[in-house]
């Protein structure tokens, strides 16, 4: 690693209490704290090599050389690492996802978490987990939560130093599953970064932000007690509240497709029948169905039978971002 090259791997995460809206867009200081589970099985692997003979940074994602805004976003994080390490060598960045970029799943969380860990190691920096989480946050807010392992809280904080994520329970704490119903595999029309900037235009945003500390505390308590019955409606309520903010911003963002709605109704019916399952939805149409492991296969089969569901991915709790070589 002191030879200026390192490879790291990180997992995406699914939020139980969502991050939507910033108090500072440049530093990605969020409007409120959030809570998530890392997803095992899906991952990004990133190699960073600092090379004094290179005249420019090069960024290759899934085999495609990046330019413009996508490259700038990566270079900004590398610039921070260079200034922390006191080096000025250009970097070669190569990153691969083991899940298809077109699956409609966010790769920015695992991508920027892997980039933060790999670039810090390649630069010879020995950063603690909180510092790596802060670094990842600069690239993508949710990436701050993919640095620690298992079940993770991202405390909003008030400045760069105090806004980072930490683990509240390891992956082994609770064997939850996320059955991800893919109903739309295309790239979202309005990405999260643009969406966060619109949150303030919704009259509902401040109201949601005001409810989060109490809701987050209750979800955290239920999670630590492995109390699915208490946790499920709170997780759904926060996803719905976030989508209400999206739908009432200017311009409004409507991510749902008809199948999204069908799944939400089905999940609620299944839960009324006694099945430990609940839904949450990111900035897209796909539905994440969180459930206890013992019912995961049944949930997957039921989802597959719903019109408009193209595929169901099943993942469990994942570990921390880490250096592999
Ligand atoms: C709806 O972290 O993708 O998935 O910081 O602009 O990269 P950027 O945004 P991002 O936002 C995630 C939004 C969300 C909710 C969540 O994951 O908490």
CATH class of the largest domain: Alpha Beta
Q: CATH fold name of the largest domain, please?
A: Ribosomal Protein S5, domain 2
Mean pLDDT: 96
How do the strands line up in the largest sheet? 8-7-9-6-1-16
* Count of helical stretches: 8
User: Which shape, going by the Cα principal axes?
Assistant: globular
Largest sheet: 6 strands, mixed
The molecules bound to the chains, other than polymers, are:
ligand DP6
How many structural domains?
Answer: 2
CATH architecture of the largest domain: 2-Layer Sandwich
List unreliable stretches of 5+ residues: none
Explain this structure:
The chain is of the alpha+beta class. It has 2 domains: 5-173, 2-Layer Sandwich (Ribosomal Protein S5, domain 2), CATH 3.30.230; 176-315, GHMP kinase, C-terminal domain (Alpha-Beta Plaits, 2-Layer Sandwich). Helix content is 35%, strand content 24%. It has 8 helices and 16 strands. A 6-stranded mixed sheet has the order 8-7-9-6-1-16, covered by helices on one side. α5 packs antiparallel against α6 (228-247). The protein is globular. The mean pLDDT is 96.
């Amino acid at each position: 690693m002191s030879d200026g090259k390192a490879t790291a791997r990180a997992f995406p995460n699914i939020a139980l209490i969502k991050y939507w809206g910033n108090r500072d867009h440049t530093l990605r200081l969020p409007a409120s704290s959030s809570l998530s589970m890392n997803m095992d099985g899906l991952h990004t692997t990133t190699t960073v090599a600092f090379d004094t003979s290179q005249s420019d940074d090069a960024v290759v994602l899934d085999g495609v050389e990046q330019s413009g805004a996508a490259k700038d976003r990566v270079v900004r994080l590398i610039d921070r690492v260079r200034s922390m390490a006191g080096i000025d060598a250009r970097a070669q960045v190569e990153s691969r996802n083991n899940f298809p970029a077109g699956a409609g799943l966010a790769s920015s969380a695992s991508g920027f978490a892997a980039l933060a860990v790999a670039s810090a190691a390649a630069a010879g920096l020995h950063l603690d987990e909180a510092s790596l989480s802060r670094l990842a946050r600069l690239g993508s807010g949710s990436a701050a939560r993919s640095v620690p392992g298992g079940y993770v809280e991202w405390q909003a904080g008030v400045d760069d130093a105090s806004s980072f994520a930490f683990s509240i329970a390891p992956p082994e704490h609770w064997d939850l599953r996320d059955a991800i119903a893919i109903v739309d595999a295309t790239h979202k029309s309005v990405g999260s970064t643009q969406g966060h900037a619109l949150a303030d235009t919704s009259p509902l945003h401040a109201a949601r932000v005001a409810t989060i500390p109490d809701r987050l505390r209750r979800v955290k308590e239920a999670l630590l007690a492995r109390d699915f019955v208490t946790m499920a409606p709170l997780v759904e309520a926060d996803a719905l509240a976030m989508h209400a903010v999206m739908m009432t911003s200017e311009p409004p963002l409507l991510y749902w497709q008809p199948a999204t709605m069908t799944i939400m109704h089905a999940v609620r019916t299944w839960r009324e029948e006694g099945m430990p399952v609940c839904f949450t939805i990111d900035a897209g149409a796909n539905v994440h169905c969180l459930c206890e492991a013992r019912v995961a296969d049944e949930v997957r089969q039921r989802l597959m039978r719903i019109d408009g569901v193209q595929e169901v991915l099943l993942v469990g709790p994942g570990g921390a971002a880490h250096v592999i070589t």
